[in-house]
Amino acid sequence: MNQKVEFYKHNITGADLDLVKKVAGGLFLTTGQIVAYFEKELASYLGVKYAVGLTSATQALAMALSCFEIGPGDEVITTPLTYTATLDAIEYVGAKPILVDVEKKTGNIDANLIEQKITPRTKAIIPVHLYGQMVDMKKIKEISDKHNLKIIEDAAHCLEGRRDNFGPGQLSDLAVFSFYATKAITCGEGGAIATNDQKIYDWFKKARCHGLTKDVSERYNTSLLCYDKDFLGFKANMSNLQAAFLINQLRWVEENLIAKEEISQKYTSSFQTNKNIQLLAIMPGVKHARHLYTILVPNLNRDEIFNQIKKNGIGIQINYQPAHLLSYYQNKYNYQPGDFPLAEQIGASTISLPLYPKLNYQEINYIIDTVKKIIKNTA
Q1: pLDDT, tens digit, 9 for 90 and up, residues 218-273
Q2: Rounded to 5 degrees, what are φ and ψ at 310?
Q3: CA distances from 227 to 47, 54, 219, 356 (A)
Q4: Which residues have a Cβ under 8 Å from the Cβ of 298 and sit 6 or more positions away?
Q5: N or C: which terminus of the chain has fewer CB atoms within 10 Å of its end residue's CB?
């Protein structure tokens, strides 16, 4: 008999809801002291000086590019194996995404291929920490220093991740995080940036509220209501309600990561000897954030396997169809199949399995047994 196993279940608890209820019963629902407290806790967890709460990671990426005055005529290097939001942010500011193929072992951008794509128009690199494994940031940092480029980490998958004892935001100009519904901590929709640069921090604090010199809480708490505006900002400020969802989740994030790691190890031990399944490698020095667990079935009909697993009640996803093969980017930049072969190979063969702390042993075993049975019958 088929079981029903959801692709994801969030980790919101009664304590989170109690805090949200308390905030909702107060006066200040928009950006205020609850957001400021969350930002302080997030920066402490990440080991950086500053964090700024925002409405989404996508908006944060676009704002970061604006912060560095990147726009029409400029180029930004990133990966094709990512969610469309990474490229979209570059498009929003009028710059051009320049894509670099990925490492076969990890799916992350191949840092060794970046320099050949740098031109006088290149202004920044956006490495994406795919599935929760950090890119080789030491190598990226060497390249950026050599060519005077900005680094904006897309760490939407990688809140808990580390590599070579560095975390997101520590070797770059800033890192961007997502608090979307399926992320390690969530408020439904939300995001943040983390940085060690006070000028970047100050800019984001103003930019998220239209570029005004005083945010709403400062205007409320001062007798003089006048404010000024010296640049065109955004409407992207995190609310107290969003922050209230996140504060306690952040305290439990490492414990939840232990649970995700145990599930991942169970998957790995069950699939690593199957000749019809390939697994992406975890590189030395990596603490994996375990945002997604993906298997690759490069020699089989991925779509048929995907549909059969779904029919057995298991929630699964494809992460990702390479962004350059989406119609918008194909039509605009004339990308063709074969332009980034390794990204395309992974994109055509990947299946993301359920991975979250609330999975129980019965569900995990059902997923493993079902996947193995379907692959055996398909091979």
Answers
A1: 655 665 566 888 899 999 999 999 999 999 999 999 999 999 999 999 999 999 99
A2: -60, -40
A3: 33, 21, 8, 45
A4: 278, 345, 348, 349
A5: N
